[in-house]
Amino acid sequence: AGIKTFGYSLSGGLDVDNNSYPDLLVGSLTDRIALLRSRPVINISQNFTVTPTIIDPSKCTAASCIEVQLCFSYLLSTGNLNYKKNITLMYTLEADKDKRPIRVRFSESNAHVYRGHFSMPETKCMTHNLLLVDNIRDKLTPIKLSMNYSISEREGRARQNSVRSLDNFPVLNQNQTTKEQIGR
Known about the structure:
With about 180 residues, the chain is mostly beta strands. It has no helices and 12 strands.
């Protein structure tokens, strides 16, 4: 039987798993305790650029008209520069959001939405190409590109009778925005 209710005892300021984050022990009304551990928090630095800023259809090629470059890196919120775990972000790029008819499409997906994965720290930047669709009527409204991302959660295997490190299971800093929009 597990813990049905918590008791009156709290013990904080501990770092049971030595990951530089505080852990908390909570007592129960039975002879059991619960260990609540903190996961590493990462801060994402991202650079989302689109070129050119003004589109000249006569300069477009069959492979590309607009280039979108995504660059990501991360730093542990504790500032530990030795933390180099492989972290994968899932991201979505959307072109001409809320605009119909769509004026551009990604060359990789042939649609106005592209979903991909970005593995850090190996990958630094990725480039995606957009193509203009035929017979565009609206040439004055800027083409807006939006990007959002989230961390790809890994499945963890449970270990018996040991405190497993949570270093491989970071969370994104909730004080950072995970969305960006560029209007060109």
